[in-house]
Amino acid sequence: MSENHKETFVTKYIFTQDHKMISKQFLVTGIFMGVIAVLMSMLFRLQLAWPDTSFSIIEAFLGPHQTDGVMSPDIYLALVTIHGTIMVFFVLTAGLSGTFSNLLIPLQIGARDMASGFMNMISYWLFFLSSIIMVFSLFLEAGPASAGWTVYPPLSALPQAIPGSGAGMTFWLVSMAIFVASSLIGALNYIVTVFNLRTKGMKMTRLPLTIWAFFITAIIGVVSFPVLLSAALLLLFDRSFGTSFYLSDIFISGEVLHYQGGSPVLYEHLFWFLGHPEVYIVLLPALGITSEIISTNSRKPIFGYRAMVMSIMAIAFLSTIVWGHHMFISGMNPFLGSVFTFTTLLIAIPSAVKAFNYVTTLWKGNLQLNPAMLFSIGLVSTFVTGGLTGLVLGDSALDIAIHDTYFVVAHFHLVMGISAIFGMYAGIYHWFPKMYGRMMNKTLGYWHFWITIVTAYGVFWPMHFIGLAGLPRRYYSNTAFPMFDDLADVNVVITIFALVGGSAQIIFLANFFISMYRGEKATQNPWRSNTLEWTTPVEHIHGNWPGRLPEVHRWPYDYSKRVDADDDDSDYLHGEDFVSQTTPLLEGEEQS
Questions:
Q1: Is 199 domain-assigned?
Q2: Is 143:78 a contact under the CB 8 Å cutoff?
Q3: Quick one: which of 496, 399, 565 has its CA closest to 42?
Q4: What is the pTM of this model?
Q5: Do residues 164 and 147 make contact, with C-beta atoms less than 8 angstroms apart?
Q6: Are 147 and 81 in contact (CB under 8 A)?
Q7: 196 belongs to a structural domain
C-alpha cells in the first residue's frame, strides 16, 4: 500500500492527511504556544514579586506597554488573560489531545488512518489559524484581551471599558470560535474512528486505557464545546450589534448606556458548562497516557482495568453537572449550591479509584524509572495533592471565604495544569521513538523532571497559604493593602521558583529538537510494550502496517504473565515478560 503512495513536500509536511504527521504539527504548534505562555507567566511573576521595580527584560518584551521598564496595570491583566487562554486551550487541549489522539488512536486500534484524513487536516489548520489570531492580538496598539481568561462581561462586553476590551477582545472571541470548530471536527473524527475502524479482534474491552480516555474526552468535547461557542457568539452580538444578552443598567463615566434585561450570570453558566468539563478534557488524556506508561514501566498488568474504564465514564458524566461550584458567590440559591456541592464531592470517588489503581499497579512492580515513568508518577502526586484542595473549594460554605484568592490559583494549577503538563511530557518521552524514530536523551530527561517537579511544588504549595491568608488573585500589586505586607516575601519565593522552573524547560526544548535529528536511533519496540503501535515499522509508512492489518487476541496489559499463575518462579508466558496483543492465546490460556 505504501509503495504506491506518492507525496510532495507540501502534501507530506504541510497539508498532510496522515495522522502521524498531523500529530507532530499539533505538538510543535502546542510547544510554540506553550513557550509564549510560560514567558508571559515569568513576566507577570516579576511584577508580583517586585512591584514598581524597573526591569530591562520587561522593557524589551513589552515595549509601549511599560514605562521605564515598569509593567502597566493594563498589560499585567492582559498577560494573565492570554497566559491562561493559551495554556488551557492551545497547549493542554489541542497540544495534548490533538497530538496523542491523532498519533495513537489509529495505531493502537489497528487502523490505517483516521476515519477522515481531510477533516483531520482541517482540524489542525483551524487550530493553527486560531493560534495565529491569538498571537497577533498581542501586537494590537491597545493590547490583547484583558478580562481574565474567563472573559466575564461586562468588562469583555463593552469595547470602551478598558483598553483590553477593544479590538483585542474581538480577536480573542474570533480566535476561540475558530478553535471550537477545530476541536469539534477533531472530536467527531476521533469518535467515528474508534467506533468503526478497530481491527479484527479489537473489542472495546481490549482497547488500551489511552484510547478509552481519548474517546470519552472527545464525547465530552462534542457535548460541551458548542455551549462555549454560543457564549462567545452572544458576547460578540452584545459588543457589535447592540444586543443585551449579558448587559443591563450599565453606567460608564456618568453615562447611562441603553442596555436592559441581560445578565452576566447567564454568561457564567454558559462558560462554566464548558469550563468544568474542560478540566477533564485536559486531564483525561493525561490520565490515559499515565495508565499506559505506568503499566509498561511497572512490568505489571494495570490494576482494575474495568474499574478504570468505569471511572473515566463516571468522571465524564459528573463533569457535566458540577459547573455551578464556580459560581457559589454569584447569588446562587443556597439549595442549588448544596446540590452542586454534592455532585462536586461525588466526582472525588472515580478520581480516587484512578489514583488508588495507579498506586496498586506500582506496588511491588519491577519499576523502570525512565523520564516518562517519573513524569507519570509525578502526575499521580500532583493529581492527588491538587485534588485534595478541591474538596475545600467544592464545599459552598468553605469556598465563599477563599473564592478568587490564590488558593484557587494553586488548586487548579496543580490538579489541572501541572498534572496535564506532566502527562504531556510523559507521553512525549514515551512515544518520541514512535514519532521520530529516535530516542530522547535520558540524562537530560532526569534533569528536566527533577527541576520541574521541585519548582512546581515550590510555586504552588506556598500559594495555597497566601490564598488562605486572603490574598486576592489578579491584583497587579498588593502594596496598597498593608494587611498583605507580611506575604510579600512569600511572593518573592514563589517567583524565584517560577523563574527557575520556567527556565528549566529549555532543557526539554533542547532535548526535544536535538534528539529529533541526532538522538540515538530507536528500535521497533524500545519499551517492550504490548500495544499495537509497537508492531509498526520504525520508519513511517502510509497505512501504518505493510500488508495486512494486525489481528488482536488479548487485552493490552499482559505483563509478567507466568506459565503457572500461582508460582512466581515459573517461566514467563511465551518466554518474555510482555505478550503483544497480536500473540494468539495458548491452549487453556484465559481469554481477555
A1: yes
A2: yes
A3: 496
A4: 0.95
A5: yes
A6: yes
A7: yes
- Measured in whole angstroms, the distance separating CA 24 from the mean position of its chain's CA atoms is 16
Q: Please name the helix (run of DSSP H) or strand (run of DSSP E) that holds residue 389, with its range, or none.
A: helix 371-393
**Count of CA atoms in the C-beta half-sphere (13 A) of 439:** 16
Assigned domain for 592 exists: no
Cell numbers for 8: 510532495
Asked whether residue 456 is assigned to any structural domain, the reply reads yes
The DSSP element (H or E) to which 252 belongs, if any, is strand 251-252
Only one residue has cell 521497533, namely: 524
Per-residue pLDDT of the chain (592 residues; tens, 9 = 90+): 555 667 788 888 899 999 999 999 999 999 999 999 999 999 999 999 999 888 888 888 877 766 777 888 899 999 999 999 999 999 999 989 999 999 999 999 999 999 999 999 999 999 999 999 999 999 998 889 999 999 999 999 999 888 889 999 999 999 999 999 999 999 999 999 999 999 999 999 999 999 999 999 999 999 999 999 999 999 999 999 989 999 988 888 778 888 888 999 999 999 999 999 999 999 999 999 999 999 999 999 999 999 999 999 999 999 999 999 999 999 999 999 999 999 999 999 999 999 999 999 999 999 999 999 999 999 999 999 999 999 999 999 999 999 999 999 999 999 999 999 999 999 999 999 999 999 999 999 999 999 999 999 999 999 999 999 999 998 989 888 888 989 999 999 999 999 999 999 999 999 999 999 999 999 999 999 999 999 999 998 889 999 899 999 999 999 987 776 666 766 777 778 889 999 888 877 776 6
Q: 541-563 burial, b if ≥16 CB within 10 A, otherwise e?
A: ebbbbeeebbebbbbbbbbbbee
The rounded distance, in Å, linking the Cα atoms of 93 and 221 is 10
Q: If you search the block for the grid coordinates 477563599, which residue do you land on?
A: 402
Q: Which of 160, 167, 172, 120 is nearest to 15 (CA)?
A: 120
Q: In b/e form, how buried is each residue of 129-161, taking b as 16+ CB within 10 angstroms?
A: bbbebbbebbebebbbbbbbbbbbbbbbbbbeb
CATH code of the domain covering residue 252 = 1.20.210.10
Q: How many domains does the chain have?
A: 1
Write the CB contacts of 90 (distance below 8 Å, at least 6 apart in sequence). 29, 30, 33, 34, 37, 127, 130, 131, 134, 179
Q: Which residues have CB under 8 Å from 54's CB, separation 6+?
A: 68, 69, 70
- Tell me if residue 521 falls in helix, strand or coil: strand
**Strand duo 70-71 + 66-67: pairing:** antiparallel
For residues 97 and 309, what is the distance between their CA atoms, to the nearest angstrom?
A: 18
**What is the phi-psi region of residue 544: left when phi exceeds 0, alpha when psi lies from -120 to 50, beta otherwise?**
left
Characterize 65-99 residue by residue with b for buried, 16 or more Cβ atoms within 10 angstroms of its Cβ, and e for exposed.
bbeeebbbebbbbbbbbbbbbbbbbbbbbbbbbbb
Closest CA to 46 of 20, 23, 66: 66
By C-alpha distance, which of 222, 21, 20, 30 is closest to 106? 20
Residue-range definition of the domain harbouring residue 450? 2-572
